[in-house]
Specification:
- This protein is α/β, with parallel strands linked by helices.
- It has a seven-stranded mixed β-sheet, sandwiched between helices.
- Helix 4 links the parallel strand 2 and strand 3.
- Helix 6 packs antiparallel against helix 7.
- The chain is globular and about 45 Å long.
- The C terminus is likely disordered.
Length: 243
């Protein structure tokens, strides 16, 4: 069975949106890990005077992490799934948080323009047909010296990492997906991680896209070796997009 891509994946997220928050709540540390990645952006002063893009915001879990860690930043959440975004918008947010319905590949067409001081992308890049093009677009949206944090399932490269991921999927993720009628989506989750870059390979992809100071940071708990925060910076000599 091929991976879900583009419209098929968006439709699967639309169908699963109503159950998504309940399922991820079963993942120990899910929200704390997102807050950890948001802190790793290392924006000073609670984000005062900064614009931050939450790319692939889903139902708003990553947006909430940014809002908690950066209580003074302007945050724009973007997602391709109307169903997921409807769930996000239904939650209570301060005025400094807004949402835009758009695929990651069509940000400019949807009116999402830089410069942004930081971008957080959680669980996004392994789902994209063209991750390199989106990375270049993100680079161009960032102000010179702007920061990127990618919070992603990217296996560390050891055989043990893949065994842990397979065991979690077979024992927890696939049974839950079957019980809720979302088996296709959660089978995609399993297989998309196995097919995606290892952590070193994704770090190299970031460098090829023009980012510097790339670091691969582990996350604690059962996700060690399975999920990482990738932090990087646009070169300070670049020029940001038009505001």
């Amino acid at each position: 069975m091929p991976l879900l891509r583009d419209a098929a994946l968006t439709a699967a997220f639309d169908r699963g949106a109503g159950r998504y928050d309940r399922l991820v709540a079963l993942n120990p540390g899910y929200h704390a890990q997102l807050r950890r990645s948001a802190r790793r952006l290392r924006l000073p002063d609670g984000g005062a005077g900064r614009r931050v893009l939450d790319l692939g915001c889903g139902t708003g879990a990553s947006t909430a992490a940014l809002a908690a860690v950066l209580p003074a930043a302007q945050i724009v959440g973007v997602d391709a799934s109307a169903g997921m975004l409807e769930r996000a918008r239904a939650k209570r947010w301060p005025d400094r948080v807004s949402f835009v319905h758009a695929p990651a590949e069509e940000l400019g067409r949807a009116g999402v323009h830089g410069p942004f001081d930081a971008v957080l992308a959680a669980y996004l890049f392994r789902n994209l047909t063209g991750p390199d093009a989106v990375l270049r677009a993100v680079r161009d949206l960032l102000a010179p010296g702007g920061r990127l944090a990618v919070h992603e399932y990217a296996l560390g490269g050891r055989r043990a990492d893949r065994l842990v991921w397979d065991a979690v999927c077979r024992g927890v993720i696939l049974p839950l997906g079957s019980a809720t009628g979302d088996r296709a989506l959660y089978r995609h989750l399993w297989r998309s991680v196995a097919a995606f870059d290892t952590a070193p390979a994704f770090a190299a992809r970031l460098r090829r896209a023009g980012f510097e100071d790339v670091r691969v940071l582990p996350l604690p708990g059962w996700q060690t070796g399975v999920t990482h925060t990738f932090v990087a910076r646009r070169t300070a000599g670049g020029t940001g997009g038009a505001r």
